[in-house]
Amino acid sequence: MTSESFRPLTTLLHRRAASTLSTTTTNTLRSRIHFATRPNPTLPRRRIKVHPPPPGPPTKDPISVLTAAQIKALDPSGSRAELFSRNNPQAIRPGDIVYVRRKNGEPFSGVLLNIRRRGIDTSILLRDQLTKLGVEMWLKVYSPIIDSINLVQSKEKMARRAKLYYMRKLKHDFGPVRGIVSDWVRKSYAAKKGVDKAGQSAGQKGQKEQKAKKAKK
Amino acid sequence: MPPRISITPCLRRLWGNSCPFRLIQPPGPVNRCRSFTTTSPNTFGNRPKRISSSGSPELLEGSKAASLERKRLATRPGVLAVKKGMTAIFKPNGRRIACTVLQLERVQVTAVKTRQKHGYWAVQVGSGLRNPKNVTRPMLGHFEVAGTAPKKHLREFRVKDENGLMMPGTTFAADFFIEGQYVDVKANCKGHGFAGGMKRHGFSGQPASHGNSLNHRTMGSAGQSQGGGSRVLPGKRMPGRMGGHQVTRPHVQVMKIDKELGTILLFGPVPGPKGCTVAIQDTILGPPPVIPGAAATSSEPAVVTA
């Protein structure tokens, strides 16, 4: 009964009652008022067993491990990662002209304004001028729909900035890269004559080359 | 209010149970339905059953038993995980799917709630690590009984019936969930402190110029005048504390499981900041997941896998 646990008033009454009715039991204060006491205060406290914890996870930063695994799966040779590596002297840098071929859709080329390094989401910003209209495009470097990323022309002098947003201004805008890129594409096909390039959407020059190859066969 | 002290037992002792006038019923709750109920009173109070189905041929709608039966609950308990951050998965067709990385840290079953003793079925799950010297003695005893080390976080996961219960001490692994299944995710969202009307409710604010003085982001009016009730109506949206409460994201797909790392990748974002504890359980909006292996349930402190 809950009323038993805390009755200061009634214990006083009980003490008086005990004296008047002369009960045989001599109730000590301790046994009447229920405190949270131990059965035998002189004995040491029960030792509580603390079980050992299970092993924790192998790493507290699983994202870097997952990213490394994903990059390895999407870029097994490591060539894509090397293209944008900080340590590689032949890497693509901001200010270079880049030509990107995709599995579906037209290839895109432009001046590299920005390399955004975010692990698996590493992306590049290319800027081109198509019929006097500035067009920028973000491309995920490790995306499976990107067939190849090629350096067309590197900047002679290193850009003194990592992000070249000043090139959006008319004064610093590079302009259309179509001429430079088409020259490069022609030269690159001429250099790789005879190598089968199945499934790649190429320019007109490339298609002519393929037709010529077929005619030869 | 001071506790009600009953003097009737004392008086009874004084008069030796031969009191001249009739005593009132002794205080304290009385389970008048004891003859009808088969369950013992639950831990949280000896409240008598108001609606008992024992006299009727069918389960009465208002009874506790009917309530438990119709309640939409998962079959299996859930898991506590730590939100580590976000990443993305690239599908072969080029689609990029943003995912949240959640990691399991020493997740074990610490206790079990039963219908007989507590009035419902649930599994108490603990995660994390706590220095035993910082844990109170009552809690140390609780973990001792469970057979686990002291945990930092504890949470109950309600289950449909006794089939969902697990042995205390069972460790959860990341492959408790299956790739492709749907889960409900619960976490405390990010707290924004005392937020203004514009942030909290999307109020448009006031003009930046044209003579506006000191009131660019204020609420403006709080309602009408005498015609609108001569007061500010209850529920008027105003600045106040924003965030820091529990948010549930239902029906979220599990994209990837990594058992060695102990990570679960969930589709999309998850409430809460990085490092927060997140509760993941099979979704109630849909059928329970089909577990390929046999039911790997309680068999001593074992590692629980799907």
Tell me what you see in this structure:
Chain A: InterPro entries: Ribosomal_bL19 (IPR001857), Ribosomal_bL19_sf (IPR038657), Translation_prot_SH3-like_sf (IPR008991). Chain A: One of its GO terms (biological process) is translation. Chain A: This is Translation protein SH3-like domain-containing protein. Chain A: One of its GO terms (cellular component) is mitochondrial large ribosomal subunit. Chain A has a domain of 108 residues: SH3 type barrels (Roll), CATH 2.30.30. Chain A is built from seven helices and five strands, in the order αααααβββββαα. In chain A, strands 4-3-2-1-5 form a five-stranded antiparallel sheet. Chain A is elongated, with a radius of gyration of 40 Å. The termini of chain A are far apart. The two termini of chain B are 52 Å apart. Chain B has a six-stranded antiparallel β-barrel. Chain B has a three-stranded antiparallel sheet with strand order 3-4-5. Chain B has a two-stranded parallel ribbon with strand order 6-13. Chain B is of the alpha+beta class and 306 residues long. About 4% of the residues of chain B have low confidence. Chain B is built from five helices and 13 strands. The interface between A and B is large, with 42 and 47 residues.
- Architecture of the domain at 66-165 and 177-184 in chain A in CATH? Roll
Which spans of chain B of ≥5 residues are poorly predicted at pLDDT below 50? 32-37, 294-300
What low-confidence regions of chain A span 5 or more consecutive residues with pLDDT below 50?
A: 1-5
- What is the name of the CATH topology of the domain at 66-165 and 177-184 in chain A? SH3 type barrels
CATH class of the domain at 64-191 and 242-282 in chain B: Mainly Beta
Mean pLDDT of chain A: 84
